[in-house]
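Researcher: Hi, I'm a grad student and pretty new to this. My advisor asked me to get structures for two proteins we've been looking at. I'm not sure of the right format, so I'll just paste the first sequence and hope you can take it from there.
Model: That works fine. Here's the first sequence with its C-alpha cells right after it:
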Amino acid sequence: MWFRALRLWHLQSPWALNDEDLEAALASQAFSPCGPGQSEQRGWTALFEEADGPLVLGQGPFQLFRLRTQERILPKAAVMECYPERAAAQEAKTGIPVKGMARRELLETLTAELLTQALLRSRRSWVLVNREQGLIMTEGSAPGPAEAALDALRGALGSLPVTPLRFDAPIDATLTRWLAGDDLPPGFSLGQWADLEHPLDRANKVRFRGQDLDEAEVHATLERGLRATALELHYQVSEGAAVSFVLDEEGTLKRLRLPEAEDDAPAEDPQAALDAALALLGPTLARLTHALLPALGGLAEPSSDA
C-alpha cells in the first residue's frame, strides 16, 4: 500500500473538475523522457504504466493521479574527476590560467557533456484529491517533491489556489498537551513514538521509541520545558480497524499504516488492485482528517496573501 507519508494542502476554492476534465488537463502536461542534454523532466504519467493508459482514477469524491520525475544522475564528483585534465589541456592551448569565469564556463561545458552519458532515474509520486473536504494530499514527507507536484498541477490547470494547512493553535502546542495526557480527542490514543525538543535550544532533544508514552520518564521530560515536535497516534476509524501515524509540527503524516494494508494480496488485474487500494485509502483518510483537523483546533482562515 502506498502513501506511507503525506502532506495535506487546503484548497481555497471548490474543486470543480470532473474526472474527464482533469484527465484532459493532465494530458496537456504528460510526462516525456529526458532529452540528451536535459537534467530533469517531470509530467503526469499513466496509472498502470501503459503509455496510452488513463491518468486519473475517480471514486466518488476522490481523484487519484501521479507525477513522474525523471533525472539524470551526475554526481558533482564525476564532473570534478574530469576537470583537472580538461583545465590543463585548455591552459596549454591558450596559455591562460583557467580561473574565475573561465573555470565556471569549463565546469558548465563538462556538465553538459557528461549529462548525455549519465544514467536515468525516475520517481513516481501519488496525488489524491478529496473534493468534499477541499483537500489535496501529496505522497511523501519532504516539502520539495510536494511543492514540485503542486507546481506541475498548477501548470496543468493554469492556477491552483492552495495553501498548507494552518491551524488557530500551533500544532506543537497541541501535541505537547496530548502527550501530557490532556484533551486527547475521542477515538485517538498515543502510540510509542515521540520527538521532543526545547523551544530555546533546538540541540536539546529527546526521542522516545518503542515505549509507552504515559510513563514517568516522558512526563519528566515535559516538566523540563521540552515540547513535542512529533507524536505517534492511533485513530479508530471503525470497529476493529485503526490507523496509526506520526504527526509532526508541520502537520505532515509519516509512518502511515492503514487497516489491513499489510495483508493486501496482489491482484492479477492492476485496475482491480488500484480500485481496491483507493476504496480503502480514500474513505480511511477522509475519516481520519474529518476527526484530526478539528482536534488540532480547526483550520485558520487563509491570510490575504495566500
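Researcher: Oh nice, that was easy. Here's the second one.
Model: And its structure:
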Amino acid sequence: AAGNNGDGQCNVEGWANIIAVDAGDNHTIGLKSDGTVVAVGDNEYGQCDVGNWSDIIAIAAGYEYTVGLKSNGTVVAVGENTFNNCDVNNWTDINAISTGGYHTVRLKSDGTVVATGKNMFDQCEVSTWENIVSIAAGGYFTIGLKSDGTVIADGNNSDGQCDVLDWKYILEIAAGNNHTIGLKSDGTVVSTGNNADRKCDVSDWNDIVAIAAGSFHTVGLKSDGTVIAVGSNSDGQ
C-alpha cells in the first residue's frame, strides 16, 4: 500500500493469502482465501472489528464502516451507523455490495438494486433499476452497470459525476468521491465528474483490465500486470 498512513491504513505488509482488498477513508480491509477478513487503520467506530467474520466472499469499505457479503447471500456490517448505512442484517439473496459516503448499495440476484443510508441527494432511490450486473457507490451518488453495457446513475450530480447515460460497451464501473470511471470492452477508459486533480485524465489509457476510483485519484490495471494512476499525489498514493 502507498499513501497517507496517519492511522496505519497502509500497514498491510504482513498480510497473506489475500484474494480481495478494499480501502475506506482511513482504513483498509482484506478478504482471505478462507473467507475471513483482516483490517487495519482507523477504528474509532469499530470499522475494523471484523476478526469474527467467516464465510465472506466480498468486502466493501465505506467512509467509517465495513460491509461483508457472505456465501449464503446475507450481509454483515460494522462501524459508524448514524444514517442506517449498516442496517443490512435482514438482507438476503445478495450478489454484490458497494459502499459510498454513508450509504450502502446491494445488487440482488434478479438484477434489481436496493440501498440504505444517507439519502440527501436521492442516491438511494434505485428501487426502479433493473437488469443491473454491477454497482458502485460514490460520495453521494450511485452508479449501476446494465447487462447491455450501458450505465445508469442517481444522486448528487453537481460535478457531472452522474452524466453516464450516453456510455456504451462498458465492462466495469468505479465511483470516487465526485467522479465516475468506466472501463470499455476495448480496454480504454471513460470518465466524468470533477477533474480538479486531473483524476479524470484517462482518455489516453489502453489495454486496461480493471479500474478503481479514490477520492482524488484513479488507478488502472493493465493487461501486462502493471498499474497506472492519475490525480492527486499529495500523499504518494
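Researcher: Is there anything I should tell my advisor about the second?
Model: You could mention this: The first strand starts at residue 18 and ends at 23.
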